[in-house]
Amino acid sequence: MSLVGTPPEPQPLGSDADVARFRRAMARYASGVTVVTTAVAGVDHAMTANAFTSVSLEPLLVLVCVEREARFHDAVVEAGVWGVCVLDESARPSSQWLATRGRPLHGQLDRVPHRKGPMTGVALLEQSLATLECRTTDVHVAGDHSIVVGEVLAIELPDSPSGPLLYHRGAYTHLR
Ligand SMILES: Cc1cc2nc3c(=O)[nH]c(=O)nc-3n(C[C@H](O)[C@H](O)[C@H](O)COP(=O)(O)O)c2cc1C
Questions:
Q1: Which sequence spans correspond to the domains of the chain?
Q2: I need a labelling partner for 3 at 20 to 30 A (CA). Which of 12, 37, 156, 166 fits?
Q3: Helix, strand, coil percent content, the chain, rounded in steps of 5
Q4: What is the fold of 31-158?
Q5: Ligand 1: which residue has its CA nearest to atom 29?
Q6: What is the pLDDT along the chain (176 residues), one digit of tens a residue?
Q7: Which residues lie with the beta carbon below 6 Å from any ligand 1 atom?
Q8: In DSSP terms, which residues pair with 152 in a beta bridge?
Q9: Atom of ligand 1 nearest to the CA of 49
């Protein structure tokens, strides 16, 4: 006779306490910070995002997870092309601004130094360690976010003396 019983059926976590614990766990995962950009009908859209990662080398693919309620979501899905700006540590104010819910859409980049990407025309922030221009290949619905996968069309590696902007435990930080 086995002394080991049948393990209980795993139950998904989902209470408010579980969500709070999940947030605390994720906050321990240190990340870089990006601003993702796109444009629809001549209007620039931009949003701070750290749920960004590389996916594949052949072909070159990256992904960003975008909250479906964020105004950036429908814009990036409609545009089909987007930029990723890997921020340097001087970009903290821009990152804070572009994470502010409900900020005015029109003119949101007026005080954020940027240029237009040569391949797609989307805005690329000057305070970047690297920029990518991408074309969407897949959009996967995943809970309250969409996973937007894109093929990399262009890469810029500006010379920068700065280190990366980082995010850890709910706060901006940098390498010591
Ligand atoms: C450091 C940091 C990282 C963020 N990462 C993401 C992300 O990966 N995906 C996302 O959808 N929102 C992310 N956000 C939140 C969005 O920036 C924010 O919800 C959005 O700018 C709200 O804009 P809206 O009012 O136009 O919807 C992040 C915020 C911060 C401060």
A1: 31-158
A2: 12
A3: 15, 45, 40
A4: Pnp Oxidase; Chain A (2.30.110)
A5: 99
A6: 556 788 888 889 999 999 999 999 999 999 999 999 999 999 999 999 999 999 999 999 999 999 999 999 999 999 999 999 999 999 999 999 999 999 999 999 999 999 999 999 999 999 999 999 999 999 999 999 999 999 999 999 999 889 999 999 999 999 98
A7: 33, 47-51, 65-67, 70-72, 98-99, 101-102, 167
A8: 134
A9: 5
